[in-house]
Write a structure and sequence with these properties.
47% of the residues lie in helices and 15% in strands. By secondary structure, it is of the alpha+beta class. It starts with a helix and ends with a helix.
């Protein structure tokens, strides 16, 4: 959590920039491991929910469609730029339906949201996930926490389901508002990335932010 506060932005897994991800900075024993009996352990994966709920970091598929964290100090600028460069969901569109459903329900795991929006037919899961990813990239949907199924003994298992909501509902509308112009937010973030990733190219930084 302290490292995320320091760098402001942190992809969970491979980012395309050497050493720049949560997986790259944790100790080896915190990475994914498969046991001889077929079981597995991945402490970093298990921490995601706690980092969000206890640390107050914003989490979603923000970096080239891949998941990562954004600190609250940088969220307003990030949201300001991303929403400006995206298209506001049109009335009657699937994106508007998804957002309206979340605003009405508060938060929902992905499969429940998919069903509520009518994506129940064959091959609908991948199509729906595409809409969710785009809305996360546009900073209109975030992950509130992760929900895990439990066995008959009450033990959690599996990879977990994302509990989705909007940043306005989770953190308040004011946290998504910025006094700077989208262009000023973008330049501020670029300067920050250059300071924390001096070896990264402009193309790599642009890819993370676009």
């Amino acid at each position: 959590m302290e490292y995320i506060r320091e760098v402001g932005f942190l992809p969970l897994l491979e980012s395309g920039i050497n050493g720049y991800s949560a997986d790259a900075v944790v100790d080896d024993d915190c990475r994914y491991v498969v046991f001889p009996d077929g079981g597995w352990d991945w402490p970093l994966w298990k921490w995601k929910g706690s980092i969000i709920t206890e640390g107050g970091f914003v989490y979603g598929k923000f970096f080239a469609g891949k998941a990562g964290f954004v600190s609250r100090d940088w969220w307003a600028d990030f949201c300001n730029y991303r929403r400006h460069r995206s298209v506001t969901p049109e009335e009657g569109s699937i994106e508007e339906t998804i957002l309206f459903t979340l605003q009405e329900q508060g938060s929902m795991i992905t499969r429940e949201l998919r069903a509520a929006c009518g994506f129940t037919g064959p091959k609908m899961r991948g199509k729906f996930d595409g809409y969710i990813t785009r809305l996360q990239m546009d900073c209109r949907i975030v992950t509130e926490d992760f929900v895990y199924p439990t066995d008959k003994h009450g033990n959690e298992y599996g990879w977990g389901w994302s509990l989705l909501t909007t940043p306005e509902l989770l953190y308040g509308r004011e946290t998504c508002q910025c006094e700077r112009s989208p262009e000023e937010s973008y330049e501020r973030m670029v300067a920050h990335f250059r300071s924390i990733l001096p070896e990264a190219t402009d193309r790599q930084i642009t890819k993370l932010l676009r």
